[in-house]
Design goal:
Oligomer: single chain
CATH superfamily of the largest domain: Enolpyruvate transferase domain
Number of domains: 2
CATH class of the largest domain: Alpha Beta
Bound molecules: uridine-diphosphate-2(N-acetylglucosaminyl) butyric acid
Strand order of the largest sheet: 21-22-1-23
Largest sheet: 4 strands, mixed
Length: 420
Amino acid sequence: MPQVIKIEGGHRLSGSIEVSGAKNATVALIPAAILASSVVTIVGIPNIADVASLNELLAYLDVDVQTVETGHIIIDPSHMVNKPLTIDAVSKLRASYYFMGALLGKYHHVTIKMPGGCDLGPRPIDLHIKGFEALGAKVDYHDGTYVLTADKLVGARIFLDFASVGATINIVMAAAMAKGRTYIENAAREPEIIDVITLLNKMGARIHGAGTNVITIDGVERLGGCFHEIIPDRIEAGTFIIMAAAMGQDVRIDNVIPQHLDALLSKLSEMGVRMDIGPDHLTIGAAPFLTAIDVKTMTYPGFATDLQAPLTALLTQAHGRSTVLETIYRQRFNHCEQLRLMGADIDVEAPLASISGPTPMHGAEVRATDLRCGASLVIAGLLAKGVTTIADVHHIDRGYEGLDGKLERLGAHIWREQVD
Ligand code: EPU
């Protein structure tokens, strides 16, 4: 039965929470694990719906997956069968496209439905395809299904027109066992990419340049098992940091790599938020006065598009007119309409949103149109007077591990109800 999240706003947050493993690393690490010929153990896997969907895909491919304790999975692909991935689970998330690179790299053949995921406007995968073709794959697309085949994969020089996270990871996976050397130029540099390359190198791959914009992959014949621990989720951390900046009284956020959040922390400091930054934790409190700012989303290390919606909720409380320029997904503004229902004063002329504040927020019935919109509405709900009801919370559950439980521990008045 569908659920709604309800929040009674106005309660201060205090105490500490621990950030989970990075969702956007996890959803690539799991498909990457199937490139191995033996067991891969990963620690720090968040308990989110996207992981359940990926595990469903692994089970369908006869990959043995065991969860020995929370966050600890053992993936054994030694009996895997390369079946067409046309089942419904593929459409439940964007990251199912990582099976393209992984299956192509391992079997030189893959049949897969178009992936699903959040509606953020157009999300083409032409750069992934360009990379696979450069490595020697033939790509057919009919009725929503891709068929990729290659007699052999041979290293190539691939320039990405845009530093796409997904294309970079997918091409790395396809090239890991190709013959010879592949260069990916204008590669994306997000920490999640470094995490995936770290896993592949532990499996025996020879990949250099992770975290820079040129990645070099020397194909190897075989990849083996390994043990890997996931990096913390910088977007979840950022979401809690923003919540604490909105409603916190010295909230401590543990399991953070502060360097991954430099762009957000610098913007919050410009707004007047007080922060105490430790080596792996931060302590944040709400600022008595927030100043309006201008933000532009960019590829890493710029300001993350995934934190744009959460930050916009906070900007409703800043004095003056803030602007948000969205350069990654130029139409990623669905949250603005929902925030307006709660009292926000936001004009959107994509790719620019202008937020005038401060505006008092009030409880309303709103809808999480996508994952980060959901996070933005939770922040607005914490700030609002009265009760906010958020529908379509399955989007939130796709990417935040136990968000409401963590917030309850910090003192938020948040609960779930079943609806018809
Ligand atoms: N793009 C193309 N062609 C391509 C690939 C991308 O034009 O072949 C464009 C996209 O349309 C978009 C831009 O390039 O305008 C960036 O796309 P990118 O490929 O970098 O994003 P992604 O891999 O699809 C991942 C995260 C997103 C996050 C972006 C940007 C996963 C599963 N998703 O998406 O996360 O917003 O990188 O950092 O890792 C989220 O967590 O809420 C989320 C949407």
